[in-house]
Amino acid sequence: MRASLIQIAVDEGESVDSRRRRTASLVRDQAGADLVVLPELWTTGAFAFEEFGSAAEPLQGPTYEAMAKAASDAGVWLHAGSIPERASDGTLYNTSLFFAPSGDLAASYRKIHRFGFDKGEAVLMGAGEDLVTVRLPDTTVGVATCYDLRFPELFRGLVDAGAETLVVPAGWPERRRAHWTLLAQARAVENQAFVLACGTAGTHAGVPQAGHSIVVDPWGAVLAEAGSDEEILTVEFDPGKVATTREQFPALKDRVLGLPAPRR
Ligand SMILES: NC(=O)CCC(=O)C(=O)O
């Protein structure tokens, strides 16, 4: 399989409309790839909390329309990153859109773990409740978003649902870049799965972004890693490696479920 991770620069000097047009064109340029991945909240920036409300869209808003067309023009599976979604009851969600090569929506995922503790996304957005996987011709993809990467139980849930490739769009800050690469490798090793993690470049809301999108194989080897600037990271990988890794080193079979609480 060939995947392209488009590490978009999200800077304040560019309007959302311009970035949306530019991103659609970058997706079209990936014709021939099997899967294209965009980052989290690339229209506004993941830390531009004050813009979430004004830039929010219904699920089938302008970003959906532009990305559905770009996916079908390029003939690729497109994880179009996430948008600030305004649901019909007014609640905001950090919602990922995943399109089939036909341009039809294959799945959407509302981020479960919201970042910010008692500020930002954590108070402005609602929490998703559903785990989401998508069957591609050669692999089953499980999706998660940015801060979700810190919560291994979510990824175990995706593996239990059949995931072999874990796709994580993000807007991860430079100051915690070491966590980003470490956690991407940890999720790959413990789940014996590919991890495709696509971040943003640039600086928005005063927060320099880490970039360093990364692709890790089921043994924890880094297949490709981007630098800090806008970049398209292209990688070829063999989805069959998940089954062979799980057969040859069958650690997932040794899971002990329902461990008792510690004795006091
Ligand atoms: N947008 C996010 O979820 C940021 C997460 C983050 O900065 C961290 O986990 O550290």
TrEMBL record:
Residues 1-239 form the CN hydrolase domain. The keyword Cell membrane does not apply. It comes from the Bacteria. One of its GO terms (molecular function) is acyltransferase activity. InterPro entries: C-N_Hydrolase, C-N_Hydrolase_sf, UPF0012_CS. Keywords: Acyltransferase, Transferase. Pfam families: CN_hydrolase. The keyword Transcription regulation does not apply. Belongs to the carbon-nitrogen hydrolase superfamily. NIT1/NIT2 family. This is Acyltransferase. It comes from Streptomyces resistomycificus. The lineage of its organism: Bacteria, Bacillati, Actinomycetota, Actinomycetes, Kitasatosporales.
